[in-house]
Specification:
Helices cover about 30% and strands about 25% of the residues. By secondary structure, it is α/β, with parallel strands linked by helices. Helix 7 crosses helix 8.
Length: about 250
């Protein structure tokens, strides 16, 4: 494990400052240098990767995992523009591919499918994907650049039904928020997001969703301060413990 340390000998005192694996300044611990691992992950992974990060920190003394969640397209663009990141987990392979050689040997670690969420009790009586266009229903979806939006577009092509959405959001979590706060009657999100929302939403499925499966890849990134540490995080996600956490949150097998 790399340690970015600055040793200052003054009056017999050795001062050690910790740095992040991706090059930024990390937290400083009292007795030893600390290392921060920067992980950028799709918004739909927020709860799951928070749990996996906790597990990783328990297994690696002195390491802090700094998580950044957003739409996969947004994160990929940020990384290409130089945002600090040691590991990237995308909600589809298209946005991982945008990184080209920056991503080291991506591997698929999970899958996910779409579902409709409504207010509890489904007051608008939505029963299918086609019902999202009912005149009294305000529907929100993800932007097409984001994996959840691209998946929705595929469902539209497969069914011949184009959703007249009131807005297109930057991330699946933004879609979910608009529904849970009453700003929209319905939204298209991932099964895992609906599951995480619990009784804040009702869910409606459609047979067309089963044919559109998003694969989630993960990779360490070139230029990371500590590729070995990033590789260990990837191994945790792909390993027994990480896969157990993913299955518990509703993600499908790779």
């Amino acid at each position: 494990m790399r340690r970015c340390a600055v040793a200052v000998a003054a009056a017999g005192l050795l001062l050690t400052a910790g740095c992040s694996a991706s090059g930024g300044v990390g937290a400083v611990s009292g007795d030893s240098a600390a290392t921060t691992l920067d992980v950028s992950a799709a918004a739909s992974l927020k709860e799951t990767f928070t749990a996996i990060a906790d597990e990783f920190e328990e297994q690696h003394d002195g390491v802090t995992v700094r998580l950044s969640f957003d739409g996969s397209s947004t994160l990929a663009n940020q990384i290409r523009q130089g945002a600090p990141a040691d590991v990237f987990a995308s909600a589809d392979e298209k946005n991982m591919d945008k990184l080209g050689d920056l991503a080291i040997a991506p591997e698929v670690f999970a899958t996910n499918t779409l579902v409709i969420v409504t207010a509890p009790g489904n007051p608008r009586g939505i029963r299918s994907f086609a019902d999202l266009n009912k005149p009294d229903v305000t529907t929100v979806v993800c932007q097409s650049a984001q994996p959840c939006g691209a998946a929705t577009e595929t469902v539209e092509r497969n069914t011949g039904i184009t959703v007249d959405a009131a807005s297109e959001e930057q991330s699946v979590s933004a879609v979910l928020t608009k529904v849970t706060t009453g700003q929209a009657d319905a939204g298209v999100v991932y099964v895992t997001d609906a599951r995480g929302a619990g009784d804040k939403v009702a869910t409606v499925t459609d047979p067309a969703f089963a044919a559109v499966v998003n694969s989630y890849p993960i990779a360490t990134l070139t230029g990371a301060g500590d590729v070995e540490l990033g590789t260990r995080f990837v191994e945790l996600v792909l390993g027994v413990d990480g896969q157990r956490i993913l299955r518990d949150d509703g993600f499908g097998a790779p």
